[in-house]
Write a structure and sequence with these properties.
Length: about 375
C-alpha cells in the first residue's frame, strides 16, 4: 500500500519520480508559516471567533502585517461565500483507499471547510500563496476522498486565492473522479524526471538524480577554471538570452538541492551525537551560538536617553542592540569605542534589557577544537 497526502499530489503530477525516495525532507519557510497562520486565523473567523493576529504572528514567526492583509482578504471572500456553506465544518480530515491497477493508495488530507448537503458536499480551500501553481490534483484528491471514502455523489470545491482576490470552483462526480483516477494511476507508474519550478519544493531534492545532473551541467557552463565573480559575470554575459534565463533556473534548483542537503546532514549530525569525524583531522559538529538579541524597549529607554540625543534615539527605536552599541562607540571617540561598547553591554545586562536565545549551527572545526 502507498500512503499519500492530497497536498503531495500536485508534485507527483508535475514529476512522477518525486515520491520515490523513502527519505523525504519537508522544508518550512516564511511562505508556509504565513499560510499556516492565515489558515488558523480563518478557521477562527469562520467559527465566529476573533483571531489574535499578534499571537498568530508570534507563534508562526511571520510578518504581522502580511497575515493581517491576507486574513482581511479572506474575510471579504467569506462574506460573499458564507451563504453557500451552511453549517460549515472546519479542518475536516478525509480519507479513501484507492484500488489502482497495481497497488492500493491510502489517500488522506485535511479540507479547510466543508458543508454537507445530502448527497452533495461543498468544500473550500484557502490559498495564501501566489496563483502560479496548479493545485487541481490536490482538490481532485479531496473530491476522491469525499466521493469514494464517504459516498457523496457530487463534490463542489472552491479554491480562494487570497493574494489575488480570486476564486476558482471545480465540480466532481463519480465519472469525473473515475477519469482522474486513470490519469493518477498512469502517473504513479511513469518513470522519469521533470525539472521545473516545482523542484525547489520537492522533499527528495537532496537525492534527485535529475537535479544533481542538472547542477553538474550548470557548473560545467563555467568550465574547470577557478570560479571568480568576474569570470562568472563574463561567462554569463557571453550566453544568449535564453541560456541566461535557463542558467538562472538551474541555479535556483542547485540552491534548493544544496539547502536540502545541508538540512539532511545537519539532522544526521544531531542524531549522531552532535559530531561527525571527517577522517582528515577535521570534524563536522553542532555548535551552540548566541541567537538574535531581543531588546525590551521599556527597560532600555533610560539608557537610550542617557547615551543618545533626541536626533539619534529614533534611529534605534526598533530597538537594534548592535546599532545602539555602534552609536555609543562612535560618540566615545577614537580608541574608546570598544570599551564604551563593553560598558553599555554591562549596563543593558544589569537592566535586564536584552534577551538572547541560542541557535544550533553546523560548523567545521579542527579535531579537538571547541
Amino acid at each position: 500500500m502507498i500512503s499519500l497526502r492530497c497536498s503531495a499530489l500536485p508534485l507527483i503530477f508535475a514529476c512522477p519520480n518525486s515520491g520515490d525516495d523513502p527519505l523525504r525532507i519537508d522544508q518550512r519557510n516564511e511562505a508556509s508559516d504565513a499560510g499556516s497562520a492565515v489558515h488558523e486565523a480563518m478557521q477562527s473567523y469562520v467559527c465566529g471567533l476573533e483571531p489574535d493576529m499578534d499571537a498568530l504572528a508570534l507563534r508562526w514567526g511571520c510578518d504581522r502585517d502580511e497575515i493581517g492583509r491576507l486574513t482581511w482578504a479572506g474575510r471579504q471572500a467569506w462574506a460573499e461565500l458564507a451563504p453557500s456553506f451552511p453549517d460549515a465544518e472546519t479542518e475536516v480530515a478525509v480519507r479513501a483507499e484507492l484500488a489502482l491497477s497495481s497497488d492500493v493508495v491510502d489517500l488522506t488530507g485535511h479540507v479547510d471547510l466543508i458543508s454537507r448537503l445530502g448527497t452533495r458536499a461543498h468544500a473550500l480551500d484557502w490559498k495564501s500563496g501566489r496563483l502560479d501553481h496548479d493545485y487541481y490534483a490536490q482538490v481532485a484528491g479531496y473530491a476522491a476522498c469525499l466521493i469514494l471514502g464517504e459516498g457523496y455523489e457530487e463534490v463542489v470545491i472552491t479554491v480562494v486565492w487570497l493574494r489575488e482576490g480570486e476564486a476558482e470552483t471545480y465540480t466532481f462526480d463519480r465519472a469525473t473522479i473515475a477519469a482522474w483516477l486513470e490519469r493518477f494511476d498512469a502517473q504513479l507508474h511513469r518513470h522519469g524526471y521533470v525539472l521545473g519550478s516545482h523542484c525547489q519544493f520537492c522533499p527528495r531534492g537532496h537525492s534527485c538524480e535529475a537535479v544533481i545532473a542538472d547542477a553538474r551541467r550548470a557548473s560545467a557552463v563555467f568550465g574547470q577554471e577557478e570560479f571568480t565573480p568576474d569570470r562568472i559575470a563574463a561567462t554569463v554575459a557571453a550566453l544568449p538570452p535564453a541560456a541566461r534565463v535557463e542558467l538562472y533556473r538551474q541555479a535556483k534548483r542547485v540552491e534548493a538541492l544544496a539547502s536540502a542537503a545541508r538540512q539532511a546532514v545537519r539532522l544526521n549530525v544531531i542524531q549522531s551525537g552532535g559530531e561527525l569525524d571527517a577522517g582528515d583531522g577535521w570534524v563536522l559538529k553542532i555548535s551552540e551560538e548566541g541567537g538574535r538579541r531581543e531588546v525590551d524597549t521599556v527597560k532600555v529607554w533610560p539608557l537610550l536617553e542617557a547615551h543618545l540625543n533626541d536626533d539619534e534615539v529614533p534611529t534605534v527605536i526598533d530597538v537594534s542592540a548592535s546599532r545602539f552599541e555602534d552609536l555609543v562607540a562612535k560618540r566615545a571617540g577614537r580608541g574608546k569605542g570598544a570599551a564604551a561598547k563593553r560598558a553599555l553591554q554591562d549596563e543593558m545586562k544589569a537592566a535586564d534589557a536584552v534577551k538572547q536565545g541560542t541557535v544550533l549551527k553546523l560548523v567545521e572545526r579542527r579535531k579537538g577544537q571547541q
